[in-house]
What does this fold into?
Amino acid sequence: MTVRRDFQEPARCRPDLVIGRQELFASARDQLALGGSVLLHGPAGIGKSTVLRALAEENAASARTVLRCSATESESHLPFLALADLLGLVLDEVSPRLPAAQRTALESALTGRGESSLQRDGLALRLAVLSALRALATQGPVLVVADDLQWLDPASSELLGFAARRLEGTPVQLLCAVRTEGQESQEYDRHLRACPPGTLAVRLGPLSRAQVAQLLDHRGHGGLPRSTVREIHRTSGGNPLFAQELGRALAESPTPPRPGEPLPVPTSLRALVLSRLDMLSVEARRTLLVASAGARPTPALLHEAGRRNAEAECAQAAELGLLATEPDAPAVRFAHPLISAALYAEAPVQERRAAHAALSTAASDPIERARHLALATTGTDLGVAARLAEAASLARDRGAPSVAAHLGLLAARHTPIDGAPGQEERRLVAAEDAITAGEVDLARDIAREVLSRASVPADRVRAWMLVTDTAGHTMAEVDAVFPQALADAGDDPRLLALVHYQLAWRALIVEGDFTEAREAAAHAAELAARGKDRRTELLSLAFQAQTETLMGHPEAPRTIKRALQEPQDPKVAWHHNGARSARFRWLVMSDQLVEARTTVTALLREVRRRGSVESEVHFLRGLAETELRAGHCGRARELARESLRLARDSGIGETASAMLTSLAEASGGDVDRALALAREAVEHAEGDGDQMYLSRALGALGYAQLVAGDPAGTVRSLRRVRSLELGLGITDPARGRWQGDLAEALVRIGEPVEAQDVIEVSREHALRLGRESVLAVLDRSEALVRAAQGDLEAAVAQLTSAQDRLGKLGYGLEEARAAFSLARLRARRPRLAGTAGTARGNTAVFDEATRMFRRCRALPWLRQVDEALTADEPESTLAVPDTVDALDVLAAMERQVAALVMEGSTNREIAARLFISVKTVEATLTRVYRKLGIRSRVDIVRLAAGRRAK
It folds into this structure.
């Protein structure tokens, strides 16, 4: 293989490091695997070269010859330079195989000797390049890797295109990248026509906010606040190069930008995006500065701000590519957000203030006017501070808490020391707005700043509570806060109520003690009532109700009713920790799915209007869970994914959203993704010390393992859940609904006695609390126990009853699972179905289950039906070997695989441990089944149990 040494990567560019390009990478990889060619295109800095290098590295091993070139703008005038890069090192190899005229033409072009050129000996040179590539291809596949095609010298570009169009049928592939601008750009067409027929054109677009965060973390800038990452994404336009440079500049900056200020733009990017600025007139540059300072600049706004020739000056900027040309759009839009940021950063401070001063009177929106007034003013000013506080209140009412938070901080900055309200009060309000907006990093920073300056106990206690609020489910990390907060609270019942409310959360999350959490919440409600703090009283009552609901306490309905009594506080009424949220949870657990859906839909609509990010994440999960219970798996999956995206973007509720998305994926999507998400949720909960969500995450993992065909894994996970919930004091089986899955998995691995114990204990609590859907699921599981014990008639009757009850309650997926269990039972005992033959011969018995699973869009369960239909023998007729030496008939690899199955390993885990592929594991298991006269992993586990008994 021939590889230009100077183009070899110093470090491997692994495909898993091509952030945000997985799907594009996969499609390009597939195209290359099929022998095709790929053309990557997109704007400067978008990551074309990164993807190109990763694809080249991955495909180089399968090619005998790799030819590379990477052109630069400064060298594009040198003829045949790219051709020399491509063929220079293989000239000696191919020259003897070319006709004399072609050999002379090619040597002259590559070495500069002689007078041959495209004009003088064009045909011979074109044919020489084509012949050289064909000659190399006779020895094995050839991969041509060409980056930055736009800078190829015209002669090399023409020759490469001539050859490429005629390479069909030869094992020569092109992997190229070219710079194009604009979403609808067709600039790559010329280059695409110069590629082999059927070349796949792949456009690389901007990264999402989450992908930019991942990129920054990978580049060592992961410590930046999420609000800053969001600003980097906005300013960079999702361009990876721009985002990295902005992240580096911020990481190296000793002081971060203050609220209202743009990001610092490093010199490297200023030079890149402002190279055309010197061609503007002085007045046009000032007009663009005013536009960059404005939120939604229009020609009319620029006129009002004193820029009389705005249209002509904007037209001049558009001709230079600084502004986007949109004839039908009134707004003045920069070609890229970074141009606006760099232009603003480049301007002197006095010119910036002048621009803001002009906009403070020109803007029509009061929020905009107040913001510009603040940025045009230096020092403290009571009037300016008051206008900013009013603007923050207006933004809050409009459902823009992030804007409110930043305006509040500006108000605090302009508030005099003796102002009323004071600086700390305005900072605390801004922090509360930041929490509502999901900017927990900003809220935490504000709270710490207040604690470093405040001496008033009320301000300090509020700040301490903000610190615990921003900790979320990692409250164990802020344990030291509580003694200090209690000391600051003294004997003030209002302040003590705030602290004890947070202590209730700590008892639940850190200690996992529902009883202590309930008592702390009740005490907080009592203190708040005594101090006439209705908001904290309502929050405490709602928390008490939530806790009582989850632990199956009989007082839950009564406490919910107390929490819903008037007067209500608007902030609490729609909050995810408010009484309406507690009532929603009670409705879900009480099988009132229709009313639960109506309730949570209204809650979600309102919090979206108010801009409350954490509540939105929470209620998206709630609606997804309700849809999942109702058997609407596709809709549940969409909602859960939306919740997870928002959770990861804001850093709020990631564990809970990953857990619920796992449940939705296992029911209606990708089981491998479900397993990965559940394990992620378990890892996060364990790392955070979050006892409350650890059991939920393990429950999701157990369910995903059951759907994946790993009952032993399900048993391991759900036994932990059972132990955890016993320790937590949770007795309501409707909280996690894992009991039926554990019983079913226990039956599958041959432990019907333990399965029956799980069913009986859970049934006692379900009967006490009236959990009808849980009782029906437990009956479905008990029917499997009875079938395993040989009482098939009773099992069929119990399954039929459970299916009917689940259908009436509206639990579509659970109803379908009951129908599936019934079908499998009837297929195993044909006489019960009134037919003869095996499962393969009794497809009709699975029709009802298939129809129900399709209605639910439960794709993983439909695959299980397909597997049952292709089974060669009914499970009950299998003869499981019971001799200690049963495995002696197996080959060495087969024995290793069987032994790992006996340990409960999945196929993926076996493949990893034995360094073989999953397909090899599956093929080996097929041979094991045939040799031992069995048909499934369950029978291997039974065999293991038999060996242990002997």
